Amino acid sequence: MEVKKSRGISAFAVIVISLILAELFFFFVLGAEGNFEGNDRANHPANFLGTMYKGGFVVPIILSLLLTVVILSVERFFALNKAKGKGNLVKFVANVKQALKKGDFEAAQQICDEQQGSVAAIVDAGLRKYKEVEGMDVAKETKIALIKDEVEEATALQLPSLQQNLSIIATISTLGTLLGLFGTVLGMIRSFAALAGGSGGVDSMALSVGISEALINTANGIATGALAIISYSFFSGKVDNMTYAIEEIGFALTQAFSETHEK
Known about the structure:
Elements: H1 11-30, H2 48-53, H3 58-84, H4 89-102, H5 105-115, H6 117-134, H7 140-162, H8 166-196, H9 204-260
Helix pairs in contact: 1-3, 3-6, 3-8, 3-9, 4-5, 4-9, 5-6, 6-7, 6-9, 7-9, 8-9
């Protein structure tokens, strides 16, 4: 089983596509004339979609971030499930360790072939190195180090692909909240300007628009940040579980060699 570095989708392409879709949604769905009183965007919103439109230019930016998180989360879900392999990861680790204790490396390799995925490929690379160093005329400690280095090298090859796009999701968790706060500030500025009034009175229309802009952007920013945090934590946990599984089997592999070989 060859250890291949998998490629995920480009985060930049996802962001660009999400921004285009968000802009189209903002102008043609949220900004549809039917969402406002008298079919005029200058009037009060007639429903929630119109209220969202009153959030201003920050709304499509935040929506694009939200859509980016959703797309990248779906991509990571399938990518990490593929990397994990077909069977349960805990059972896979237990079965491989049991085969190693019995010294049945053919069975261990068969388990890896059945599991498939990046984790199994890394373990398989360690098993192949195990057989390779058995015929080497070097010290026992050197052989163990070679097995350990092979597992670490195969892990280093796969780890970037497992963590791909997670940094983007982590960034959006902060950026989404900050943009929501930025939109809130803009809405509050508009609201205070309306309270001042051009002729000493209160511009109720401008005041309501400013309040809508502030609240909508606050809600959108918090929702985007919260979803990004949940997504990042969930998939980071999955990557950590796979890394722990690899380390556990790698330790079992070197331990098995140390116990069954005098030199």
